[in-house]
Amino acid sequence: MENESKVSGASSDDSTDETNSEETAGQEIPVETETDGEDTSGDVTVETDGDGQATAREEAALQRVETVSNLLDDAIPVPGTDFRIGLDPILSVLPVAGDIIAGAFSLYPLVEAVRLDVPRSTLAKMLLLVAVDIAGGSVPVLGTVFDAFWKANVWNQEMLEDHIYQN
């Protein structure tokens, strides 16, 4: 009842009208937050629209994965050839630390795949590609060459695209 008296008393004063409008604005903010929360929960279920088209959320995830995989595997053209390398073989020049850093970045497509509810069998294949990339890249000298040819991130990107466009 105290709240009722304060509300009724507040409407009689001009200075408290501003307070009421602030209260109304304050009440609108949680409503917007609830709407954002509903959108987020709606994004949890990943579905295509039936004809192989990706949702906006899936497209955004694919763009992020493409950026990471391009950076790690295909960012730099080798002059005079059609071959491209990324930061992965360059980082592998640093013993141990370079492979750990590159491996950590290579896990990002898997994180996106988990968010998009990719089947466990596909996740296992993606993880295996990253594990081979880390193990092969950790071999001194030959690991750098291996990293230049083993395009685990590009292959993981392609598997993610296949999953999204086949559903």
Shape: globular
Number of helices: 9
Strand order of the largest sheet: 1-2
**Estimated structural class:** mainly alpha
Q: What separation lies between the terminal Cα atoms?
A: 56 Å
Helix share bin: over 70%
Q: How many E strands?
A: 2
Order of helices and strands: HHHEEHHHHHH
Overview of this protein structure:
The protein is mainly α. It folds into two domains: 2-44; 56-166. 74% of the residues lie in helices and 2% in strands. It is built from nine helices and two strands. It has a two-stranded antiparallel sheet with strand order 1-2. Strand 1 and strand 2 form a beta hairpin. Residues 1-49 have low confidence and may be disordered.
In summary, what is this structure?
With 167 residues, this protein is mostly helical. It has helices at residues 2-10, 14-44, 56-74, 87-91, 97-106, 108-115, 120-137, 142-149, 152-166, and strands at residues 76-77, 84-85.
What's the arrangement of secondary structure elements?
Layout lengths: L1 H9 L3 H31 L11 H19 L1 E2 L6 E2 L1 H5 L5 H10 L1 H8 L4 H18 L4 H8 L2 H15 L1
Antiparallel strand pairs: 1-2
Helix pairs in contact: 3-9, 5-7, 7-8, 7-9
